[in-house]
Design brief:
The chain is an alpha+beta fold and 203 residues long. The chain contains 5 helices and 6 strands, in the order H-H-H-E-E-H-E-E-E-E-H. The strands form 3 sheets. It has a two-stranded antiparallel ribbon with strand order 1-2.
């Protein structure tokens, strides 16, 4: 006798896990109120504040004919499923000192104002939040922000007098409102698996 099981049932039986493989028996449980029978496509932005060694990241070659670099080897099997965009830059950050006026502009392309901290101005809404406004209703959470470090406070006098909070957020709901990030894995997991959410985290 075939009986469908929910992903929540599996989680309760096996303990905490950030991701589970797709099982066909879970298909009905994953169907949402929007009528989607398959998970919606996701958009992911990852920020590396200390940068990377260019030659280990940026591949040689043009278009789809490029060489897999050491840092891209884990994605070699998915080469035909993603695009590599190069030479992107924000003219509004050229010549500006330090990370503070550049981190918030990573996803907004804005001009970050030097402020005292209580009147932040990142220069724009980040692209992830623009997407959340348009299609965020297709997932349990419109957007999901994760981080590694707690928010910094104060003014960085050595870096041009910018509020350190600028360096703590890449996601901005509007030019004046950074989106809080979750830095504790357990709380991030709980946010996905709360009883009020659907049976698996369709972020």
């Amino acid at each position: 006798m075939s009986r469908k099981i929910s992903r929540r049932t599996v989680l309760q039986a096996t303990g905490a896990a950030l991701a589970l493989p797709w099982l066909e028996r879970m298909a009905p449980a994953a169907t949402t109120t929007t009528g989607l029978s398959e998970p919606p496509l996701r958009m992911l932005f990852a920020y590396m504040p200390n940068g990377v060694v260019p030659e280990l990241w940026t591949p040689a070659g043009d278009g789809e004919d490029y060489e897999i670099t050491p840092h891209l080897k884990p994605l070699a099997g998915l080469k035909n499923d993603f695009l590599l965009l190069e030479n992107l830059w924000n003219a509004k950050t050229v010549g500006r000192n330090g990370h503070w006026p550049k981190v918030p502009a990573f996803l907004s392309g804005g001009y970050v104002e030097r402020t005292s901290g209580d009147d932040l101005d990142s220069g724009g809404t980040s692209v992830d939040q623009l997407a959340a406004q348009k299609i965020g209703d297709r997932t349990t959470l419109p957007s999901f922000e994760l981080g590694l470090e707690a928010t910094r406070t104060g003014i960085d006098t050595a870096g041009g007098g910018f509020a350190r909070m600028y360096g703590s957020f890449i996601s901005w709901r509007d030019p004046h409102t950074p989106v809080p990030k979750e830095i504790i894995p357990q709380l991030a997991f709980d946010r996905c698996s709360a009883p009020t959410k659907r049976r698996w985290c369709r972020v």
